[in-house]
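Run log, item B.
One chain of 142 residues. Sequence copied directly from the ordering sheet:
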Amino acid sequence: MFDANVLGTQLVMKHTLPVMSKQGSGSLINISSQAGLVGIPRGSVYAASKHAVNGLTRSAALEVAAKGVRVNAIAPGPVETDMFDRFVGRDAVAKAEFLSRMPTGRIATTGEIAATALFLASDSARSIVGQIITVDGGYSVG
């Protein structure tokens, strides 16, 4: 897990940021997790790996911003996926309990994560650099 999340992110940046820097523009969007912003029970290695992704994102952003390249990350919370269903969604009681802790009362969709990525990649986000954008329905707020 640590290799996939941290080493994988580092390798993508290693091979894409020099190209973007040379062309003088680009937007690299890493995928983090709300677990990279808060701790999670029984998920310390996963949380640590996503904290590392956030550190890589912020540090790389500082290294390449002057070259016209932006680096940011999206930190999804719970998202309606097969993985979510495996852990929570198949049990109606567990899902209802989980939803009761969500300020919005709903789980994000993959489309919402994609829309966030499209925005970050757009010129409308030119001044967003080194940020971790949380898409979690308020779950990590408190």
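Observations after the first pass:
- The helical segments are 2-23, 44-64, 82-89, 92-100, 110-121.
- The mean pLDDT is 93.
Flagged for discussion on Thursday.
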